[in-house]
Amino acid sequence: MGLIFDHVALGQRVLFGSGKAAANLAAEVARLSAQRVMVIASDSATPLARAVAAEIEVAVWHHDVVMHVPIEVAEKARAAAAEAGIDLLVCVGGGSTTGLAKAIALTSRLPIIAVPTTYAGSEATNVWGLTEASRKTTGVDDAVLPVTVIYDASLTLSLPVEMSVASGLNGMAHCIDSMWAPRADPINAALGAEGIRALSRGLPLINEDPAGAEGREQALYGAYLSAVAFASAGSGLHHKICHVLGGTFNLPHAQTHATVLPYVLAFNAPSAPEAEARIASAFGTADALTGLQELRKRLDAPKALSDYGFTADWIAEAVEVVLPAVPVNNPHPVTIENLTRLLQAALTGEDPRVLLDF
Length: 358
Ligand code: NAD
What we know:
Radius of gyration: 20 Å
CATH superfamily of the largest domain: Dehydroquinate synthase-like - alpha domain
Mean pLDDT: 97
CATH class of the largest domain: Mainly Alpha
Number of helices: 13
Shape: globular
Low-confidence stretches: none
Strand order of the largest sheet: 1-8-5-4-2-3
CATH architecture of the largest domain: Up-down Bundle
Structural class: alpha/beta
Strand content: 5-15%
Bound molecules: nicotinamide-adenine-dinucleotide
Helix content: 40-55%
């Protein structure tokens, strides 16, 4: 069969450079002719954000950031932006902070400059998320895609190694899941493969030398590629499972992705030989699962969902909610029985190889 695909590339500017965030932000604010800037940063990220915003005039500082963007938190931030006549949003922080900026942009259509401090990748997607009455809804709207992303690895030096590993494996999950997600195509696959290479080089360096620049830079570069691949390919089986575990059972985002990933890879790999070979080649190992597991071992990565509060009693409900959301093009047919087995294995941290050819 010929090479036939339909790929959409999202337009945004990416400025990458350690120690350059403040200068890059000032140049972007000037380029966009912004007059009334709102900077969003959690209390703990405020010292970092103040340094990043040192060369611009800030009209409003907003610190009320909450994971998964509860609607009340979004409404307050929207009102603050409207009241102050804001014309540009700047967010400095992880996915939760970027998520709040997106919630404001969703209704106000204000442009965003994102300055990420984790490897979650939200800054490179047009996906928003909001939580109302403990239900997380997500949607796609190009208005929430930051116009500019400013990457500065020095801002991630304070991210503890454990969180860096979990967040980096969240990026790895974007890369791997995009190989079989609904809109998987050769461009996403190429970006995902380069993302795997960068993350598998960067994360062990962070583990060995958390204060070193090289690992942090590679991880950020990989995180960006992973998010571009994910934004284009959409949510595959892995993201559908993690969305439910986070949204319905309130499990922590990055750690849940880091834990579930080898189980989805073991589950899908035998039915997706081309993706499997591409992932293996990016890891430089004989097979994809070995590559991921060797990396996870080196990083002492999260192993069992039980460590994050998930219990066997919730598996049936999780299966019920995930099953209807499973993409029809998932390489391996998903049933109540095999999805239950996948979650049982992830719950206790069993060897994912039990799922090969299950
Ligand atoms: P997060 O933003 O909640 O940050 C995790 C923790 O790390 C927080 O306590 C934060 O204060 C701390 N932190 C962040 N940067 C730090 C730094 N440089 N130094 C020290 N501490 C730091 O978590 P996250 O994993 O970055 O993002 C998760 C959220 O992002 C979830 O709500 C998820 O749904 C969302 N997300 C959305 C998309 C999308 O495309 N819309 C993609 C990925 C993640």
